[in-house]
Hints:
The protein is α/β, with parallel strands linked by helices. It has a single domain (25-193), classed as Glutaredoxin. 54% of the residues lie in helices and 12% in strands. It has nine helices and five strands; from the N terminus they run H-H-E-H-E-H-H-E-H-E-E-H-H-H. It has helices spanning 3-13, 31-34, 48-57, 71-81, 84-93, 105-119, 145-161, 163-177, 181-193, and strands at 43-44, 61-66, 95-100, 126-130, 136-140. It has a five-stranded mixed beta sheet, sandwiched between helices. The longest helix is centred in the last third of the chain and has 17 residues, at 145-161. The model is unreliable at 1-17 and 182-197 (pLDDT under 50).
Amino acid sequence: MNRQALKKEMINTKKPTNSGQPNRLAAETSLYLRQHANNPVNWYSWGEEALRKARSENKPLLISIGYAACHWCHVMEHESFNDAEVADFMNRHFVNIKIDREERPDLDQLYMESVHLLQGQGGWPLNCFAMPDGRPFWGATYFQKSQWLEVLEQITTLFRTEPGKLEDQAERISAGVSQPNESKYNTHRGAYANQRI
């Protein structure tokens, strides 16, 4: 089965696992965000509402960025974001933000640069974890469901037990992102890539 046929099959067979109640993305103008409106994940679009909730509940942000034609974005949605177990964990421990990179290239660039500093490469879906104020501390791209659950559990544990480490990491990444482009990726990748989360 080719990619187009697989994508069409996933879209046509997608069944909401949230009793048919759409989340707040149903009111968005972006096709990509509306494609996630029936996920059981309690998605927010980027904005003050999500940031305020993260600050008031002292939860990390889980920022997932993609676009409507992204194959692996749809695969991760099908495997993880439509899964009740995954969604329940995400909803309990994170404030979840979904971003359309075509609508918000500014945010895509910021979080993509952060992942480049950490991983040496990037892509979509782009999944970034950030402090309640939006400063990223870790991120990567596609994960299979079992890997994704492990990452979610590790981040949750670190946020509870070693928040100072994550704060330091967020500071280092913020400093790296604000450096001139010509030196950013070549000279700083090792320092960030060696930070294990």
